[in-house]
């Protein structure tokens, strides 16, 4: 079926003639003899085109056209008239009609006009879908992917964005934690205010305190002028504390007090300043384990972990790997001036099989390298690094059929625990969840394995 057409004309013979003609051309056709019937049909059914006469009892064709243009602007309306004057043509266009035909209607011209109108509607629908997709992508900034883990994450982000609660963003290095934080900021009521990020692992304790809270002139050597801290730079907006798990313990105490009171004291100052900032924290470390080991304050952990969002590693996102690779191929092809448009099937299989310990950041670097090396219009296996070309999927080997190769159950368990820990980047909390153990049981088994290795 090429399309569905609604014919509106008080002349029954004309309706039947048009229905027969359009049916022969592959169109599904309904017809009625008044604007009232037409509105009822439009309410209950979907049509691609409306073809209406102008002069009908009651509501005219032009009035019907105006009604459809205001309520269903996606449906093109073609108007037929026996009075093809300039004034009629102008009135038709003003009423929102897609086109108009004069009676007696030439059937070939009619089918051609119908075909153009159907194509016009389909194009409008495609553009609308593309606009919706673009809005969806912009909604999450530069984040790409439609795997189930990412769709779940997007849903959580939309709900978190309307809140003002503290959020802890977890995930391996290179998964895009800062992108999540930026997207949450854009979704929030603070979007018009600054987004500020600081890497807590990149600064010493003294520099980090000065960066966050600011300092007054003379507070320390080289403090020749007063400086506003990042809390004040982010006033009204959002502050991301990236790599929060690497913050020194003494700095954690100062940060907790600041967050609890919404007041800060610049280095070297004896005055406190109120601030209005939403704090987001991000880390690749297992903070629950760090708390148990005394490396992270429990009270600060509870303060920043009101809501937790976890970014899945790239290796668990399926074909998202290829979607992200395609995005970077387009990006680097434009910047390098190369006409590279895709990736070969064998190269795609290698990308999907690789474990991506560096996640999206590593994939970006791999594609940038491939675009620099490739001599073809597609990325090939030869353009990929050796570690990806020669990668073999991880397995837990427990021995073959030879009884001398078989290992005790305890050894199978040990190897599997090591395999799971490697898969989750040594995150013991996540590993315990996968293994169906509580963390204390996992720690006991790990300690037992270490002791066994020492005895051996």
Summarize the helices and strands and which ones pair or pack:
Elements: E1 3-8, H1 12-24, E2 27-32, H2 35-44, E3 49-53, H3 61-71, E4 77-81, H4 86-94, E5 99-102, H5 107-139, H6 148-161, E6 167-170, H7 177-187, E7 195-199, H8 205-213, E8 214-215, E9 227-228, H9 230-233, E10 238-242, H10 249-261, E11 263-264, E12 273-274, E13 278-283, H11 287-292, H12 298-304, E14 307-310, H13 320-336, E15 342-343, H14 345-353, H15 359-373, E16 378-379, H16 386-389, H17 409-423, H18 428-435, H19 439-455
Parallel strand pairs: 1-2, 1-3, 3-4, 4-5, 6-13, 6-14, 7-10, 10-13, 15-16
Antiparallel strand pairs: 8-9, 11-12
Helix pairs in contact: 6-7, 13-15, 18-19
Question: Can you describe what's shown?
Answer:
- This protein is α/β, with parallel strands linked by helices and 456 residues long.
- It folds into 4 domains: 3-131, Response regulator (Rossmann fold, 3-Layer(aba) Sandwich); 148-310, Rossmann fold (3-Layer(aba) Sandwich), CATH 3.40.50.300; 316-389, Helicase, Ruva Protein, domain 3; 403-455, Homeodomain-like (Arc Repressor Mutant, subunit A), CATH 1.10.10.
- The protein has 19 helices and 16 strands.
- Strands 2-1-3-4-5 form a 5-stranded parallel sheet, sandwiched between helices. The protein has a 5-stranded parallel sheet with strand order 7-10-13-6-14. A two-stranded antiparallel ribbon has the order 8-9.
- Helix 13 (320-336) crosses helix 15 and helix 18 (428-435) crosses helix 19.
- The longest helix is centred in the N-terminal third of the chain and has 33 residues, at 107-139.
- It is elongated, with a radius of gyration of 33 Å.
- It starts with a strand and ends with a helix.
- 30% of the residues are buried.
């Amino acid at each position: 079926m090429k399309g569905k057409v609604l014919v509106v004309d008080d002349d029954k013979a004309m309706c039947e003639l048009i229905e027969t003609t359009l049916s022969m051309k592959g169109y599904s056709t309904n017809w009625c003899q008044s604007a009232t019937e037409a509105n009822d049909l439009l309410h209950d059914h979907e049509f691609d085109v409306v073809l209406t006469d102008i002069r009908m009892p009651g509501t005219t064709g032009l009035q019907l056209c105006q009604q459809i243009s205001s309520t269903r602007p996606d449906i093109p309306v073609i108007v037929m008239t026996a009075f093809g004057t300039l004034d009629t043509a102008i009135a038709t266009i003003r009423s929102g009609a897609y086109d108009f035909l004069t009676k007696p209607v030439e059937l070939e011209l009619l089918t051609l006009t119908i075909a153009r109108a159907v194509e016009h509607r389909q194009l409008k629908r495609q553009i609308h879908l593309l606009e919706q997709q673009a809005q969806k992508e912009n909604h999450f900034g530069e984040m790409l992917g439609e795997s189930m883990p990412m769709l779940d994450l997007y849903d959580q982000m939309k709900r978190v964005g309307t809140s003002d609660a503290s959020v802890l963003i977890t995930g391996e290095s290179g998964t895009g934690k800062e992108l999540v934080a930026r997207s949450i900021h854009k979704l929030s009521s603070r979007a018009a205010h600054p987004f500020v990020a600081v890497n807590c692992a990149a600064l010493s304790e003294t520099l980090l305190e000065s960066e966050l809270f600011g300092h007054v002139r003379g507070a320390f050597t080289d403090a020749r002028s007063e400086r506003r801290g990042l809390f004040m730079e982010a006033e009204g907006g959002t502050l991301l504390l990236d790599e929060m798990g690497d913050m020194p313990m003494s700095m954690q105490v100062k940060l907790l007090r600041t967050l609890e009171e919404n007041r800060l004291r610049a280095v070297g100052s004896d005055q406190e300043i109120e601030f209005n900032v939403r704090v987001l924290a991000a880390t690749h470390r297992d903070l629950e384990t760090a708390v148990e080991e005394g490396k992270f304050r429990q009270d600060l952990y509870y303060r920043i972990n009101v809501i937790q969002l976890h970014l899945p590693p790239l290796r668990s996102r399926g074909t998202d790997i290829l979607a992200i690779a395609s995005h970077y191929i387009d990006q680097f092809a434009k910047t390098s001036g190369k006409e590279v448009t895709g990736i070969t099937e064998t190269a795609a299989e290698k990308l999907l099989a690789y474990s991506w310990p560096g996640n999206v950041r590593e994939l970006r670097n791999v594609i940038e390298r491939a675009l620099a090396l490739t001599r073809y219009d597609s990325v090939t296996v030869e353009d990929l690094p050796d570690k990806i070309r020669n990668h073999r999927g991880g397995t837990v080997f427990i021995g073959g059929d030879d009884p001398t190769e078989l290992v005790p159950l305890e050894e199978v368990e040990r190897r599997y625990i090591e395999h799971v820990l490697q898969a989750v980047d040594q995150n013991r909390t996540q590993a315990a969840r996968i293994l169906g153990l509580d963390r204390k049981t996992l720690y006991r088994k790990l300690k037992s394995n270490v002791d066994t290795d020492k005895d051996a």
